Amino acid sequence: KYPDYYLKKKYRVRPEAAAAVPDTVEKLIEGMPGVFDPAAAGDLQAEIQFDVSGDGGGKWVVSIGGGGCKVRKGEAVAPVLTIETPGDIWVKIARGEIDRPKAFMQGLYRAKGDMKVLMRLPQLFGAPRK
Hints:
The chain is 39% helix and 25% strand. The protein is an alpha+beta fold.
């Protein structure tokens, strides 16, 4: 288990970046292609399934490949990673109000599949571009 001070230092979000994060999980997930970094993805080919509960919940598939990213509602046939999360928790993680690794360790959200892809999410989907 990592000390809180390490997690806060390593995974902090700049205030200006947090302010640019959408306030609903639907807008957040559907906006992921707009903040996708193709250079960080390299040759990654993956489908990430988001199963979101609570207000604004639903199922989305984030497809990464060929230097691009697309989002659609629905379910992936064979996702590389499945993230099960309450919508409000995922928004708070994106805004930097909750540390992503700490939230995972505390069971605030669950992930199944390739944990390397989970660890790369901050690099793949950085702060919104201006």
